[in-house]
């Protein structure tokens, strides 16, 4: 916090050079996001915590109740049965119509994950090497199957509540059951939801994402830090993603640390600009595009949280 | 043959953890042992029609399988205004509806179980509802319709374990049992509920949306109130253009007899639908219609068949200096026109167990098991020192 206080507010645009934003550019980019994706809105938060360099009513961006249907671990495991793998296995086995559940080593899994992220972004630094190489030193954590445990805990919670139910309460025939209420049917999957907010980090001069998860769309029960980490790619959980207090709201949120945001954004922007000069139809990205590109990048860290940033962003060039 | 009854989708309470944290502080510092209900604020709005990311289309079937979803009454840290805080910062964005309700914090969990829920709701919410509907001390100059979109929350806060038990109600004034509000029986069954796209020309639909926009713009410019109006009156001027006025006795009274005859009433319907091509009509509509109908009958003295618009824009944008009116008749409207048979004033009278008649409210939210019962929330993950220390390491 002291660092943030001591850092002068960025005055001149350095979007194309360093992938960073001035507060004015953050507001501009935020306005564009809100306009194109109305699920996002500006919020003012606690007036005591308001940042002077941002307008009073445009302190941060929020989108709420975003569905998160699956855990990241299922996605990470599914890398092993990606399409090219199936084809490869089929070749190896003479095209027979059966699949081997191929056991892949953590190293292999990690390699494929890196490759997947690479393909999605082609994040290249000056020497043409992937920035992801830093990540290679990180150990991949074995995805734990905690969902069973979680489900049990929730059932207990409802069992607790059962004794509080009151059959004397007046009900009437004109009411339909809330369609999003969790049925007593065990088979119905509870879909976690997330509230996402994007703040402006004055020290790193980039947007910063804070997320808070809920046990189901019907519940106001916040998830624990550990539960939220199940929705973060394991490469990032507990490292670039930490549990922190929200700068404008009460409560503990999972936050994606912005130390690499500028570098990554710069690289993506550079590649987009290069594509433009190579004679593609598209122009170099404008500041208004920043949050769309940024959210696409963020979605590689939290791929199962299904937030809205629908706009054509092509960030892959050679 | 009697027509079908109108069905409603109840609100769903959505409470941000920040609300509970601030409420617990308020309880400790200011309220102490008092169980008097305190005034709090909430908001509701429509859910923008989201187009989810294409690559995840397969995994979203779980959430989109239901044809419609409840409106959410949302509370957060801004819901509570502490005694020392100035109220000036309470400017809710004008694309949401601001509501005022009450929270009653019980000191013991036992009293939560034993307290008579029906009586409690009548005691806490009926007077303001009846006042809004002009039954008790009618003062038309200072009409306050907040009670028509109100809420009530009964809760117990365990300040040691941070486990809270709470039960929301969205109180509505209802006609007596067996007198449920029905669609207009003089209208063919297929026509009691139609999408506006079907029943209006594209020009008329655009004109209607423009009128709603102008109403909001005017309200914003005058700074009388913030927030989107929950109810309004729609009528046509001499040029055949739509005009909208927020719902109030004075605004209705100011219409000419001819305008009164042809006017419609609209409410912002927080129930969201993916599209409006339903095979089976009528479909359930938003909860707030129930109190709107009570108001039309009891306060405005209306009777017989009436046109009500369940207004469902696909998006509500904030209004500010730079906003302009944009509307695409093909995609931006999911509204319905309802032909409703208004009940009589007497229908709102319930037989009292002690003889005579009385008014009655209901609206306790069902819990996650779809039973009348409270919900619980455990805030330990957000608050427990040991947990935080672990996270910090």
Write up what this structure looks like:
The complex is a heterodimer of chains A (318) and B (393). Chain A is an alpha+beta fold. Chain A has a domain at 1-69 and 191-259 and 273-318: Yope Regulator, Chain: A (2-Layer Sandwich). In chain A, 34% of the residues lie in helices and 13% in strands. Chain A is built from 11 helices and 6 strands. Chain A has a 6-stranded antiparallel beta sheet. In chain A, helix 10 (261-277) packs across helix 11. The longest helix of chain A is centred in the C-terminal third of the chain and has 17 residues, at 261-277. The radius of gyration of chain A is 22 Å and the shape is globular. Chain A starts with a helix and ends in a 20-residue tail after the last helix. Chain B is of the alpha+beta class and 393 residues long. In chain B, 25% of the residues lie in helices and 24% in strands. Chain B starts with 7 loop residues before the first strand and ends with a helix. In chain B, the strands form 6 sheets. In chain B, strands 9, 10, 11, 12, 13, 16 and 17 form a 7-stranded mixed beta sheet that branches. In chain B, strands 3, 6, 7, 8, 20 and 21 form a 6-stranded mixed beta sheet that branches. The model of chain B is unreliable at 51-66 (pLDDT under 50). Chain B has 11 helices and 21 strands. Chain B has helices at residues 17-31, 61-64, 109-114, 117-132, 196-199, 202-222, 249-253, 257-262, 289-298, 380-383, 385-392; strands spanning 8-9, 12-15, 38-44, 68-69, 72-75, 97-106, 152-157, 163-173, 182-183, 193-195, 231-236, 242-246, 264-268, 272-273, 285-286, 305-311, 336-341, 350-351, 357-358, 361-364, 375-378. Chain B has 2 domains: 8-178 and 348-392, 3-Layer(aba) Sandwich (Cytidine Deaminase, domain 2), CATH 3.40.140.70; 182-346, Ubiquitin-like modifier-activating enzyme ATG7 C-terminal domain (Cytidine Deaminase, domain 2), CATH 3.40.140. Chains A and B meet through strand 1, strand 2 and helix 8 of A and strand 1, strand 2, helix 1, strand 4 and strand 21 of B.
């Amino acid at each position: 916090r002291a660092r943030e206080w001591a850092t002068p507010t960025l005055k001149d645009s350095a979007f194309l050079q360093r992938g960073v934003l001035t507060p004015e550019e953050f507001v501009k980019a935020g306005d564009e996001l809100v306009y194109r994706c109305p699920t996002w809105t500006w919020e003012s938060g606690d007036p005591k915590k308001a940042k002077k360099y941002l307008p009073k009513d445009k302190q941060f961006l929020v989108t709420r109740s975003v569905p998160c249907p699956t855990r990241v671990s299922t996605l990470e495991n599914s890398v092993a049965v990606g399409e090219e793998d199936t084809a490869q296995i089929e070749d190896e086995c003479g095209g027979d119509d059966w699949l081997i559940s191929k056991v892949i080593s953590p190293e292999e899994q990690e390699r494929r994950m890196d490759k997947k992220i690479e393909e999605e972004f082609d994040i290249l630094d000056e020497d043409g090497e992937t920035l992801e190489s830093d990540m290679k030193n990180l150990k991949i954590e074995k995805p734990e199957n905690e969902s069973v445990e979680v489900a049990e805990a929730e059932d207990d919670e409802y069992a607790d509540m059962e004794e509080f139910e009151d059959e004397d309460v007046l009900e009437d025939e004109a009411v339909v059951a809330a369609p999003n209420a969790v049925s007593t049917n065990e088979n119905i999957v509870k879909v976690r939801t997330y509230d996402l907010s994007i703040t402006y980090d004055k020290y790193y001069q980039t947007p910063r994402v804070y997320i808070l998860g809920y046990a189901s769309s019907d519940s106001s029960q916040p998830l624990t830090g550990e539960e939220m980490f199940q929705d973060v790619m394991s490469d990032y959980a507990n490292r670039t993603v930490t549990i922190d207090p929200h700068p404008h709201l009460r409560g503990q949120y999972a936050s994606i640390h912005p130390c690499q945001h500028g570098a990554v954004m710069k690289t993506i922007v550079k590649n987009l600009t290069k594509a433009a000069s190579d004679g593609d139809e598209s122009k170099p990205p404008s500041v208004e595009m920043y949050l769309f590109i940024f959210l696409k990048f963020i979605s590689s860290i939290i791929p199962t949280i299904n937030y809205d940033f629908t706009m054509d962003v092509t960030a892959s060039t050679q | 043959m009697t027509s079908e009854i109108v069905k409603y989708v109840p609100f769903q309470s959505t409470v941000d953890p920040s609300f509970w944290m601030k409420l617990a502080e308020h309880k400790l510092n200011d309220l102490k042992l008092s169980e008097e209900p305190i005034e709090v604020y909430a908001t509701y709005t429509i859910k923008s029609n989201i187009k989810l990311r294409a690559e995840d289309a397969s995994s979203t079937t779980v959430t989109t399988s239901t044809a419609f979803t409840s409106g959410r009454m949302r509370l957060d840290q801004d819901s509570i205004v502490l005694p020392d805080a100035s109220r000036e910062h309470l400017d809710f964005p004008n694309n949401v509806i601001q509501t005022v309700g009450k929270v009653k914090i019980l000191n013991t969990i036992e009293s939560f179980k034993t307290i008579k829920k029906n009586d409690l709701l009548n005691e806490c919410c009926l007077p303001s509802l009846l006042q809004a509907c002009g039954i008790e001390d009618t003062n038309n100059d200072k009409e306050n319709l907040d009670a028509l979109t109100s809420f009530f929350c009964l809760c117990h806060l365990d300040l040691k374990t941070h486990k809270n038990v709470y039960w929301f109600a969205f109180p509505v004034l209802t006609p007596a049992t067996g007198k449920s509000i029905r669609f207009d029986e003089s209208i063919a069954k297929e026509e009691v509920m139609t999408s506006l796209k079907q029943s209006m020309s594209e020009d008329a639909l655009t004109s209607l949306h423009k009128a709603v926009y102008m109403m909001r713009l005017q309200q914003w410019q005058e700074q009388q109130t913030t927030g989107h109006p929950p109810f309004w009156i729609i009528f046509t001027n001499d040029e055949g253009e739509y005009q909208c006025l927020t719902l109030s006795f004075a605004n209705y009274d100011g219409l000419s007899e001819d305008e009164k005859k042809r006017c419609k009433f609209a409410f912002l319907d927080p129930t969201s639908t993916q599209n409006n091509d339903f095979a089976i009509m009528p479909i359930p509509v938003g909860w707030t219609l129930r109190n709107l109908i009570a108001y039309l009958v009891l306060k405005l003295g209306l009777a017989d068949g009436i046109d009500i618009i369940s207004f469902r824009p696909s998006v509500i944008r904030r209004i500010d200096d730079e906003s302009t009116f944009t509307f695409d008749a093909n995609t931006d409207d999911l509204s319905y026109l309802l032909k409703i048979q208004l009940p009589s004033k007497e229908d709102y009278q319930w037989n009292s167990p002690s003889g005579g008649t009385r008014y009655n409210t209901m609206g306790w939210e069902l819990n996650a098991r779809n039973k009348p019962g409270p919900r619980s929330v455990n805030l330990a993950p957000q608050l427990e020192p040991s947990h935080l220390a672990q996270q910090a390491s």
